From TrEMBL:
Keywords tagged on the record: ATP-binding, Nucleotide-binding, Transcription, Transcription regulation
Sigma-54 factor interaction domain: residues covered: 1-25
Any one GO BP annotation for this protein: regulation of DNA-templated transcription
InterPro entries the record matches: AAA_lid_NorR (IPR058031), HTH_Fis (IPR002197), Sigma_54_int (IPR002078), Sigma_54_int_dom_CS (IPR025944)
Name of the protein described by the UniProt record: Sigma-54 factor interaction domain-containing protein
UniProt keyword DNA damage present: no
Source organism per UniProt: Desulfomarina profundi
Length: 102
């Protein structure tokens, strides 16, 4: 979780989606681990958080954390957050309802 949250995601939600899809393809077992994520993500986190002791994360939690982090960065502006995430405002609202964060 820390790895996904700490990475800046310059490609926004599309880059996150690609990283998660890649991770699912490469994962062993039923949990997504940092070793399944792209090297760019792994290296960024290793440079900024050298402890390396992170727990596996669910896709649901990764998406939730990215959305909440983006909302925080935009001061709660849902239209701006949706634009940064590359999704519609309605999709953002639906996801927030799913997370009970509206």
């Amino acid at each position: 979780m820390n790895m996904l949250v700490s990475y800046p995601w310059p490609g926004n939600v599309r880059e996150l989606e690609n990283a998660i899809e890649r991770g699912i393809i490469l994962m062993r077992g039923t949990r997504l681990t940092e070793k399944s994520l792209p090297l760019t993500v792994q290296k960024h986190v290793q440079q900024h958080e050298p402890d390396g002791n992170r727990a596996p994360v669910s896709i649901f939690e990764a998406e939730k954390q990215l959305i909440l982090k983006t909302l925080k960065e935009t001061g709660g502006n849902k239209s701006r957050a949706a634009k940064l995430l590359g999704i519609t405002r309605k999709t953002l609202k639906n996801k927030l309802d799913k997370y009970d964060e509206s």
